[in-house]
Structure formats: C-alpha cells, structure tokens
Amino acid sequence: MDPTRFPKSTHLPFVRIESATADDGPIWNFEGPETRNEIVLPPGGGTLRIRYTSPQFIAPERGRFRYRMTGVEREWQEVEGARVASYASLRPGTYQFEVFGATSDGTWNPTPARIRVVVEPFIWQTLTFQLSATLIMLAALGWVIRTGSLRRIRRRMELVMQEHRIEKERTRIARDLHDDLGASLTEINFLGTLTAGAVSDNAVRQRIEGMVDRAQRMTKSLDEIVWTVNPANDSLSSTANYLSSRTQESLVAAGIRCRMEVDDPLPHTPVDSDLRHHLLMAVNEAVNNVMKHSKATECTLSIRFNDRILLVSIADNGTGFAPVTSPDSRNGLVNLQSRMKASGGSVDISSTPHGTTVTLRTPLP
Fold first, then answer.
1. Residue 50 and residue 39: Cα distance in Å, rounded?
2. Which domain holds residue 364?
3. Which residue, 93, 121, 149, sits at the end of a domain?
4. Are 30 and 50 spatial neighbours (Cβ–Cβ below 8 Å)?
5. Does residue 149 belong to any structural domain of this protein?
6. Which end of the chain is more exposed for a tag (fewer CB within 10 A), N or C?
7. For 321, phi and psi rounded to 5 degrees?
8. Binning pLDDT at 50, 70 and 90, where does residue 8 land?
9. pLDDT digits (tens, 9 = 90+) for 40-74
10. Which of 58, 54, 57, 49 minimizes the C-alpha distance to 66?
11. What is the pTM of this model?
12. Residue 58 maps to which CATH number?
C-alpha cells in the first residue's frame, strides 16, 4: 500500500449553523421552533456567539472553517478546530453571517452556509425616535431663539419709547425756555434800552446799559441752550449751520472778516446734544481767543466730515502765540482740551507769527 497514491476525497464538506447565544442565554437553535433563516439579537444582548459545525468523521479536530459577518468584516477569518464565532457590541442593523468548511485534506466547499442576523435597537436608537428628538430639539431651539428675539425687541422698543419720551421732554423744555425766558429777556432788553435813552444822568445810564448788555449776553446764551436741548437739531447739518451762524455773528460784531468752508452736502449723521454742546463751547472759546488776543483781520471756519471723523478748524491771520508758554487764562487751552476729551475727541493747535489754527477732531457714531 502506497500512501502517496491515495486519491483525495471527492466528498465536499457540509457546514451547518447550529445555534446562537447572547449574554442572557440562547436566542436561536437549528432544532428549535424559531425562524431558521434569521437570528434576532435583542437590545442590549451583549456578545453574540454563533455555533457552527461540519459532520466529518475523519480527523474532525483538523476541520478548517472560514467565516465573516458582512457589514462588520471585509476579510474572511480562518480557524482550525474552533466552531464558535463571537461578536461583541454589534450596532443595530441587519447583517449576514457566512461560513465555509474544508476537509482535512484541504477541500473547500464553494457554497457557504448563510444566515441573516438582526440586531434590534433600543428605542432611542430607532430612526423614528431620533427624528422625533431632532424635531423636538429644533422646536425648542426655535422657541428659545424666538423668545430671545422677542425680549430683545421688547427691550429695544422700551428704549425707543424712553428716547421718545426724553425727546418730547427736551422739546417741551426748549419751547418753554424760548417762549417764557426768552420773551422775558427780550422784554428786559427793550425796556432797558428805552430807560437808558430817557435817563440824563450819565452814571445811571451806564448802569442801565450794562444791564442791557448783560441781558443781551443772557439771550445769546439762552439761544445756545435752546439749540442744544432741542432734539430737532440732533444732526450734522444742523450743527454745521449753527456753528457757522454763531461764528459769523461773533466775528462780524468784532470787525473781523469771516470765511466759511463747509462740506456740501453733509450726510444725515446724528449728533447728540452732549457732543453738540461741547463742540459749540469749544468753537466759542476758539473764536473768543481770536477776537481778544490774535489781532487778526480775517478768520476761516472749516467744517469737514471724512471717514466718520468730524473736523472743525478755526484759522486766523493774527500774530500767533506760543502754546507752551501762553497762560491758560489767556487762550483757554485747558477748556478746549477738556471739552474735546469729554466728547471723545481731541484738539490740535498750531501757531506761527502769521496766524493760528485750532483743529477740533471728534468721531461720530
């Protein structure tokens, strides 16, 4: 007998899937009443163990198998002797388990044994639950956004209403100042002028004329206060017009020729009352310095608006001064700097023997 001349077996190995168990016990058996073509793993079943075998009686311990779980593995797992395939932590879904068998002489069956594996999800892993949860989250997010938007809208409406009430009160104050106090000062001015003309005593007439002059200055100051308080003037164009008219009025009264250089047209940019007040006081201070100390014959007021920056400059052709050594009481530099600093701006002063230029720079919102 020559062992090398023994023919290989022509019998193809037969593979059968016998049973399946989970951590809690058996879930499928070939001999049981369960559906034979499907293994159902309940939610939280844990590790799935699938048992298979091949009825071979010649060297069964040398039986070889190849298996894989489609959807989990791409490559075939080849084992020898073992007859259990284990899968831990399978995700919910549908898979297919396949297994080949081979005889001891290496003959493989070309057709694998197959069975479908269904892993059931927890309720929160189902598509219906996830869609419902997503819709609920979107609805809650929309409610939160809508609530926040409504709160912001209410807050803005309250601010707008408060600003409206403040503007109405400012309008009332400006109207009362103009109608009541302004009329009274005008009447005092008129009566003082008549009385001064009727008095022959020179000393008394001078006192009365001094009272009239004081009333005229108070009327001018009142007009500036009314212009500052009135919300109808909270604009760049109104600010430029008023600064121009006040500067021209003061310089003409002092016998100084006045020139105006104003951008035209100016944009509709809001300017609040505080900034208008600081600008007016700063321009008045610069113009007063021109009238009192410069000995100028001509003064130019320039108003420019570029890149959200308002530039107001007062330039004269006077004798100039040294800003470092000049006393504060003479030129009011401290007042200019403090007012522009309070408005968030700055002041630049350049002076030569041929004139002085004061530039007020402030950003607008």
1. 9
2. 234-365
3. 121
4. no
5. no
6. N
7. -160, 170
8. low
9. 999 988 899 999 988 877 767 777 899 999 989 88
10. 54
11. 0.52
12. 2.60.40.10
Instruction: Check which CATH number belongs to the domain holding 359 and give it.
Output: 3.30.565.10
User: Using an 8 Å Cβ cutoff, are 344 and 329 in contact?
Assistant: no
Could you tell me if residue 316 is inside a domain?
A: yes
Burial class (CB within 10 angstroms; exposed 0-12, middle 13-18, buried 19+) of 51: middle
What total number of domains does the chain contain? 2
Of 71, 90, 121, which one is at a domain's C-terminal end? 121
Cα–Cα distance measured from residue 18 to residue 230, given in angstroms and rounded to the nearest whole number: 96
How confident is the model over 236-283, as pLDDT tens digits? 888 999 899 989 988 988 899 999 999 888 888 888 888 888 888 889
Q: Assess if residue 164 is contained within a domain.
A: no
Sign of CA dihedral 311, 316, 317, 319: negative
Question: In the 3-class helix/strand/coil scheme, how is the chain assigned residue by residue?
Answer: CCHHHCCCCCCCCCCEEEEEEECCEEEEECCCCCCCCEEEECCCCCCEEEEEECCCCCCHHHCEEEEEEECCCCCCEEEECCCEEEECCCCCEEEEEEEEEECCCCCECCCCEEEEEEECCCHHHCHHHHHHHHHHHHHHHHHHHHHHHHHHHHHHHHHHHHHHHHHHHHHHHHHHHHHHHHHHHHHHHHHHHHHHHHCCCHHHHHHHHHHHHHHHHHHHHHHHHHHHHCHHHCCHHHHHHHHHHHHHHHHHHCCCEEEEEECCCCCCCCCCHHHHHHHHHHHHHHHHHHHHHHCCCEEEEEEEEECCEEEEEEEECCCCCCCCCCCHHHHCHHHHHHHHHHCCCEEEEEEECCEEEEEEEEECC
Distance in angstroms (rounded) separating the CA atoms of residues 5 and 24:
52
In sign, the C-alpha dihedral spanning 323, 329, 333, 337 is positive
Task: Check whether residue 114 and residue 241 sit in a common domain.
Answer: no
CA distances to 17, 186, 212, 253 from 206, rounded to whole Å, are 128, 19, 10, 21
Q: Which residues fall within 8 angstroms of residue 199, CB to CB, at 6 or more apart? A: 205, 208
Q: Which position has the token pair 């040294």?
A: 322
- Say if residues 270 and 237 touch (Cβ distance below 8 Å): no
Q: How far apart are the first and last CA of the chain?
A: 110
Which tokens go with 362? 């402030």
